[in-house]
Amino acid sequence: MALDLYQRLGVKRGASEAEIKKAYRSLAKQLHPDRNKDKPDAAKRFAEITQAYDLLSDKDKRARYDRGELDEEGNPKMPFGAGFGGYSAGPGGGPQPGAGGGFEGFQGGFGGADAGDLSDLFEGLFGAANSARGRPGGAFGGFRQRGRAPQKGADIAYRLKIPFVDAVTQKPQRITLSDGKTIDLKLPNGLEDGARIRLAGKGGDSPGGRGDAFVTIEIEPHRFFTRDGSNIRLTLPITLNEAVLGAKVKVPTPEGPVMLTVPKGTSSGKVLRLKGRGFTGKDGKRGDQLVTTEIDVPAGDSELQDFAERWSGGGNPRAAFGV
Question: What's the burial of 5, exposed, middle or buried (CB within 10 Å: 0-12/13-18/19+)?
Fold first, then answer.
């Protein structure tokens, strides 16, 4: 019997988000294809637990799954509980329209593909009774039996952590699929944390064709860059001399350090702009890098202390506050 999503991760149905995340991380370390190249079953299990975590980590999907509205693949379950609506068996064994005019829960009533696909169900429900009355084909004898088309392979879910700088520069990411193959994933314009990228034909195999893979992106935080829409921000320490006299200083960017001009008389909190150094938007235009200056005043510098004691300038920078 197939395991449900909770059993795949080895947690109870009422497990917290933290417990589910902890269980997934532990299993992912054990089963990752890079560590089990000689064990094809591990790659399959890795895909199964990743798909389970992707669904259970989404609050809305988890709630729908717990209510029985979604299956283990995250697909809606067919609503068989709706009943037979306004149809009844007529004299000829075929469906006759009643007051309801359709089959509840199915679009468009009986006919076309729906009739063929459901004929086995109706044969099981009514066939024996009608055969006893000599009616060929059961209650729905007017339907022609038709073989189902082979189903496409299962979709597979992945989660991919991307370094902040790689996300800004759209550096292709090498990932290992459940079948052990590696591909270089191209990052799209407008990339956001939590975005899902579809890889057509990279899912499970089946006689009906391969399913798709869906990669959920997680952009890792950076130690000094932060994101602000399509812009990125950086707080840059500068010396008192650089602030007073102005200077050209080296500043880190996602593509490497560049020189930035600090104007004379720069105060802490002044924002300087480096154009085109941010994230690329959906329109293909890049945001900017916004650099906020922060004057670094050294402690215990006797020369600076002597100067400050002799200097009487500066005025009252708090005058605008009325104090």
Answer: buried
| DSSP notation for 21-73 | HHHHHHHHHHH-GGG-TT-HHHHHHHHHHHHHHHHHTSHHHHHHHHTTSB-TT
- Half-sphere exposure for 296 (CA within 13 Å, toward CB): 7
Question: How far apart (Å, rounded) are the C-alpha atoms in residues 165 and 221?
Answer: 9
Torsion of CA 93, 97, 99, 100, to 10 degrees: 100
Evaluate if residue 162 carries a pLDDT over 80: yes
The H or E element spanning position 282 is none
Cβ atoms 154, 209 nearer than 8 A: no
Q: Cα Rg for the chain, rounded, in angstroms?
A: 32
Burial 276-310 (b: 16+ CB within 10 A, else e): ebbbbeeeeebbbbbbebebeeeeeeeeeeeeeee
* Tokens, residue 258: 């560049």
Residue with the larger pLDDT of the pair 135 and 65: 65
Whether 126 and 118 have beta carbons less than 8 Å apart is answered as no
pLDDT at 28: 87
- C-alpha neighbours within 13 Å on the C-beta side of residue 303: 3
pLDDT given for residue 100 in this prediction: 37
170 closest CA partner among 291, 288, 274, 286: 286
What would the mean pLDDT of 82-109 be, rounded to a whole number?
38
Q: Select from 219, 282, 284, 283 the least CA-distant residue to 254.
A: 219
Per-residue confidence (pLDDT) for residue 315, from 0 to 100? 80
List residues bridging with 156 in a β-sheet.
Answer: 213
Q: Both tokens of residue 260?
A: 């930035």
